[in-house]
Structure formats: structure tokens, C-alpha cells
Amino acid sequence: MSDVVLHVFNWKYQEIIDRLGEIREAGYGALLIPPILYSDVNSHDWWQRYQPKDYRVLLSHLGGKKELEELIKQCHTGKPKLKVYADIVINHMANENREDRLNFPGEAELANYRHNRDLFEANKLYGDLNEGLFSGHDFNRSGNIQDHEWSDRHRVVYGDISDLPDLMDSPWVLLQQRTMLAALAEMGFDGFRIDAIKHISTRMIDNFADSDSLAGRYLFGEVLTTNDHEEKTFLDPFLQETWISAYDFRLFQTIRNAFTMGGSLRTLARPESENNGLPWARSVTFVVNHDLPHNEDFRNLLLDRTDENLAYAYIVGKDGGLPLIYSDHNESVHRHPEDHDRWCDAFKREDIKRMIRFHSQVQGKKMTMLYESDLVLIFRRGDCGIVAINKGGDHASVEFDTSGLKNPSLYEDCLNNNKMTIEGDRFNLSINPRTAQMWLAQK
């Protein structure tokens, strides 16, 4: 079964259901769907999904509980089975301009529940919607994190992000989070992405991660780091204090540095053993995620388009980690016209589909370096797969030892439809500038 995750960023649930055939055909093994907790149903803005109003209701501009149940059913009963991971926001609640802004869902929303009882009961996850869920006693109320405080772990955990009310790790809040996630697991979700997890205390993480209701579920978090200091402050403690997985920002930084002018692909040869990436069993690998195009503070982290394609060949071709492919609907174009169609429907790009085919064929096979330099990286996967990347601007001709490869054997390049026969102890591979190759031995 493929383990490649498709991030269907800001897709409506019915659209996901309607396109499951295409998603399966492309070779994905799991979906990461947008935040599912109750948020503004009238707003198409993607960031509204990251401002929950109530844990007890599954309803947003993207759909409701009925569509989610149908999505899970079709993913689990269709062939091949697809896993469904939900994006969950538990660090904070919505920033709303009302007098009772620390009461959730608030008096006006409770009145809405009563007025539209059938709608909200149909989308209820758990609990009594006649009563409020949180009050001012459930929030840290220590003010916004200031620019000079972003390297202070205590302030990052217990401060507000841009006026978003920051939840305490009190017994009541922890009970609601545990109950909510248990109810979602009962619905059939296979795992959860925990948003803004570096802003969440270890006590809050342990509260749900160690619960029996989530046993066997896949959990991963967003520990966003951009430099060595932030990794030591946030990522290293996260790895030491929890068992769950995380976006591999350490590997992403290594990839960015490797593909910059003067950077070296050698740093990608053994990322885990050289501390250039997370432990393989706790790594969700990516080359772009939704924060990078949409957050002005992070757009400078975006890779050059060609480098992004080469990096995809690397993370999908390497062993270890869970590769994530990002696919949106041009949400960033209104502010950045240059993004047009860059990630829109990326899930069905022919080159990515071919990378996933390679990945599925070599899954579980050991990665062994065949050649490494500043500009060229070549490695094999077991005895039947070869990945070659040339980031340089010149043609490369590289000779390597064929030990461990099927030999003699005909190989086909999944990306470029070329064929070659490997035989003898040495082989010379030709790689065009700024391209990648993914070779599979033919049976």
C-alpha cells in the first residue's frame, strides 16, 4: 500500500469525494483534509478553518459531518483503501469581535444553535449544544507573542498568536480535547495533524497522544522552525518529550540550503545520521506546505520552481519519512499572481504521479549512495531502483559501481520514458542539467 499523503488544501469535502477515483489512480495512500471543527460557514477564506468556534460541531464552508462520514466510508471501502488524516486546531479558538469574545461558542452562536436545531444536531460530534463550551477561565490571557519573544519557548506556548485566544492546559480544556479526538477516532479518522503544535504544552500533547482512544492512530504536528536556534528551542524538546511525528522542517532546511547557489547535495546523502533530518519513523517530508505560500513571513522559504521539482524527486525517491504532496486551488494567486497554477491540482501532475509509481515499487528497500558531489546525487533503492539528481547548470556524466543492482538488466526512467541496460561492474550515467531521473529495473 502506498504511504504518500495528499494534502487536499482547502478542498470542499464533496469535491474530495468526487475525485477519489483520480486520487487513487495517481497512487496516493492517504489524504490530509482541512481543519474540520466548526468555523465560519459563510467565509471562503482558507484561514477561517484555522479559527474554530466549537469542538462539538463539524461544520464549515467546506462541508459538514455527513460529507465527512461519507468521505471516510468511501476512502476505507474503495480499492485500494485510503487513510484519512484530519487537520485539528486545538491551540486556540477564533478571534471574533464581540463582547463575550472569550466565551465559546458565545451567546449569539448558542442562539443560532437553538434557532437551527436540526442543522446543528445533524452536525454534532458530541456534547450538549444548549450549553457553552469554554469561558474566560479557560484561556491563558497573557497577551500576544511579541516580535522579540518568538525564541522564548514559554511565551510561544502560553501567549496568543495574533489575538487568537490561547487555551489553557486546565483539566476542563484537556477533557474536551480528549473527548473531541476520541469522538473523531470513533468516526473512523486514521490520524490527525495537530496544527501549531510548538505552541502547545507537553501536558496538552500527552493528554491526547497517550489516550487509549487514539491507539494505532497516526499523529503528526507542525513544529515550524527556520534555523538551528529554533530547532534547539522547539524541535529538539518536542522530539525528546513526545513520541509523535512532525513535519520535517529540519530536512526541509537542508534541502533549501542544498539547492541554493553554493549549497551541496552531499548534505542530502545521509540526512538522519548527519542530523540533517528527523528520525525516519517520525518524519513527514515535504517541499512546500500551506504556510509557505500564504504567510508573507515564510514566502522567502519557497524553493525555485525547478528546485521544488527536483526536491520532490528526492523526498519521494528516498527511503524514510512519509512524503506529503501539496495541492491547492490557487488560493494565493490574489496576492501573488506568479503562483498561478503552481500548486493547483498538483496531485495529478504527470511527473508527480510517476514519482509515486517509483516510490511504490521501491517501498521498504534500503537507500544506498552510488555517487555524491555538490551538484549531483545518485542513490539506489534496493536492487531495482535508481534516483539521479543534477542541480547544476551543466550536463553531468557520472560513473558508479553497479554492485547491489540487478545486473544485467533493462531499466526504465519513470520521469522521462528513457531506457538503458546496466551490465558489468561499472556504469556511466548521463544526466541533463537541472533534471532528475528515477529508474526502475524491468521484470
TrEMBL record:
Signal peptide: none annotated. One of its GO terms (biological process) is carbohydrate metabolic process. Its EC number is 3.2.1.1. SMART domains: Aamy. It is an enzyme of class 3 (hydrolase). Residues 3-359 form the Glycosyl hydrolase family 13 catalytic domain. GO terms for molecular function: alpha-amylase activity; cation binding. Keywords: Carbohydrate metabolism, Glycosidase, Hydrolase. It catalyses: Endohydrolysis of (1->4)-alpha-D-glucosidic linkages in polysaccharides containing three or more (1->4)-alpha-linked D-glucose units. InterPro entries: Alpha_amylase, GH, GH13_cat_dom, Glyco_hydro_b. Belongs to the glycosyl hydrolase 13 family. This is Alpha-amylase. The lineage of its organism: Bacteria, Bacillati, Cyanobacteriota, Cyanophyceae, Oscillatoriophycideae.
